[in-house]
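WARN retry 2 of 3 for item q-0093 after timeout on previous attempt; input resubmitted unchanged.
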Amino acid sequence: MVNGKWLMARALRLAIYHLTFAIYHGPFFVALLIAGADDVLEAPMATTPMEEFLARLRGTRVWKSVFRRGPARSNRTRSLAVFGNIFLHAVPAKVREKSLRVRATYYLGSITFFLFVVLLITGIMLMFYYHPAIPQAYRDMKDLRFAVANGVFLRNLHRLGAQAMVAAVFAHMFHVFYRGGYRPPREFNWVVGVVLLLVTLFLSYTGYLLPWDQLAFWAITVGTNIISAMPVLGPKIRFLALGGNLVGENALLRFYVLHCVVLPLAAVVLIAVHFWRVQKDGGLTVGEDDVIPAKAGNQPPLDSRLRGNDKGEHGRKEI
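OK item q-0093 returned
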């Protein structure tokens, strides 16, 4: 038998719960019916100082160059957030048709990426024959030259590929700068490209010490001494990079970890973001219609021209 008092108490608790829910959330649902779900959900629920600061931050040019969409408060804005996230929607739904045309300068970025893949493969193969320790590192270089089959070819392919990649990155950056690829709305991708250039230079520099010969030792010594000449932070950065005050085994191990793990992972992530933003920003080409601000009443806004509309206009092609 069910106790009647227990049923009455449970019913009373449920009534109080629903009444409290209606008091707190009733005006919100009424507003949904009057104004529409998207308008209410996209509107801020409160005006705290933090929300006002975030609203001002979202209105800055730097924020808009990185994040194309507003806060994901409705189903529509959540869908746009998914489409604008590389990890959730890697392939864009639309691209410019002219960006798919093959040109001579189109290969600069592709050659750089191909060289990066070659360096990854040859670097992994070299790791099978290398020990980041003194004096074993130099002995491993001798073994690659005299004992390992095709060791000279493997090491030279890695070394020459690294030099060619640095040259290709500089050529690619010069071409993008010449074509105006640093202007809106491509500022963020230009910054990503500059960071990739620095990562490429750091990869080349950290790999310089790994053979542990006279050339590598004195090159790192001179380079770190130049870093120590910087005011305030110079000596600390040098000590952090070398793991001490001299170029020794600690420096060799740190440069090995940076060269084989940290910098390659950073490069992979940045390359993925870079390729993704190329298509999101309207393709590889930069034309005058992309960088000249639209006049009122004559052309659609710049952002809408680059993204296209729902009908697939403005030179976009479904893929």
